[in-house]
Amino acid sequence: MTKFSDLNLNPKVLKAVEEAGYETPTPIQAGAIPPALEGRDVLGIAQTGTGKTASFTLPMITLLARGRARARMPRSLVLCPTRELAAQVAENFDTYAKHVKLTKALLIGGVSFKEQDQLIDKGVDVLIATPGRLLDHFERGKLLLTGVQIMVVDEADRMLDMGFIPDIERIFSLTPFTRQTLFFSATMAPEIERITNTFLSAPERIEIARQATTAENIEQGVVMFKASRKDREASEKRKLLRMMIDAEGEKCTNAIIFCNRKTDVDIVAKSLKKYGYDAAPIHGDLDQSQRTRTLDGFREGSLRFLVASDVAARGLDVPSVSHVFNFDVPSHAEDYVHRIGRTGRAGRDGKAMMICVPRDEKNLESIERLVQKEIPRLDNPLKSDRPEAEPEAERAPRPERRSAAKPAAKRVEKPAEQQVEQQIETPAEETRGAAPRDEDRSTSRPPRDTGAPRRRGDRGDRGDRGDKKGNNVVGMGDHMPSFIALSFEERRAG
């Protein structure tokens, strides 16, 4: 069995590795370190969690142990897709280079340019950066890349997903042709293959596992979930997540919960906190200091649940994550491999569980094609928690709602006789002086200018007062307007 002491590393580097508690290299480390120490280009393909970071940090420290950097001209460059991964690489350099006098700088967003400029001006042996911030410094004239001897591209497939490939190609063109290139990726998409063919010179290819495979020590499962109603899907899905966590009990010491959208990350984290779960969000829109505090709390164990977007799927090195919950099925099948790779690290057992709604079933099929196996289906604990549906006959009928787009139902006109009877039953105080509604008119009545026509003899009609005294108004017929009758009454009263 190969040991680190067999890999021709600098004795001071070996001492730091032993102090960190490592004796035996992982397969990717054992395959990549020897050709890297020989100065050859390396193409490393291995799934996440296999120790790729040490595969390039250990040989880089050994090769850079002698020599001195010049101002604004770093001797080596490490490119990472996310701030978290860049920070992790920087921590690895601190761990393994503590007995070697090497300087480093970390160029990431969310940190003051001034502090980074001061480090670069002094000269650094190792420059660790995200592509965007590196080019910002270069375009401001604060950085030269002509002195780069070793260039590392970490998580290249994630660079592709995030749209960094044009930046990577430009950075390659700014570095010397004679540089040594160490290129690492979990998968090899055609675009990644093209870049390696263009910028790597006869690389040593180390492929530890079949592309996009999941570790055998990770137990996987998926719950097929359909909401009782469409407008309840989000809340029921969050309830299902809580029930899945509760079902794991004490086995779930800590967990990362992945969501596809940043807004869902915030909502799920807030919901878990509301129900008493120790949870916090992390995604690209949060301030860097807040992201750092959250990650530190999760690593130290003071935070139990980390709700994350895919920005955290790469670069999180927390060896003891017991569970990964995919609240959403990832839209890119490769992301599933990286997400669940956060558990089961360093040979430990892990568990990954996922919730799949009907619209995500196609994405689930893509994942199963990629990993070349069916993910076991789990029982939905929410089904047993729901009350049984009411029998159709016992359900209370819902009141009909009139849509604004539908015309109102047509009213049935009553015969004139029924309308007259209705008017007779109405107290005179209610009808006197009130304008009758259109639907109370009889079709046999002629139109009038004011008020509703009333028949002689109808109660409540002021014109009938004259009839009681036997003084009919000649010439007005049976449809005399009430205002004319009122004027005659006033004359008689006078």
UniProtKB/TrEMBL annotation:
Residues 375-494 are annotated as: Disordered. Its EC number is 3.6.4.13. GO terms for molecular function: ATP binding; hydrolase activity; nucleic acid binding; RNA helicase activity. Residues 244-386 form the Helicase C-terminal domain. A motif (Q motif) lies at residues 2-30. SMART domains: DEXDc, HELICc. The keyword ATP-binding applies. InterPro entries: DEAD/DEAH_box_helicase_dom, DEAD/DEAH_RhlB, DEAD_box_RNA_helicase, Helicase_ATP-bd, Helicase_C-like, P-loop_NTPase, RNA-helicase_DEAD-box_CS, RNA_helicase_DEAD_Q_motif. Signal peptide: none annotated. One of its GO terms (biological process) is response to temperature stimulus. It comes from the Bacteria. It holds the Pfam family DEAD. It catalyses: ATP + H2O = ADP + phosphate + H(+). Residues 33-206 form the Helicase ATP-binding domain. SUPFAM superfamilies: P-loop containing nucleoside triphosphate hydrolases. The keyword Secreted does not apply. GO terms for cellular component: cytosol. Keywords: ATP-binding, Cytoplasm, Helicase, Hydrolase, Nucleotide-binding. Residues 375-403, 429-452, 458-470 have a biased composition (Basic and acidic residues). Residues 2-30 form the DEAD-box RNA helicase Q domain. Belongs to the DEAD box helicase family. This is DEAD-box ATP-dependent RNA helicase RhpA.
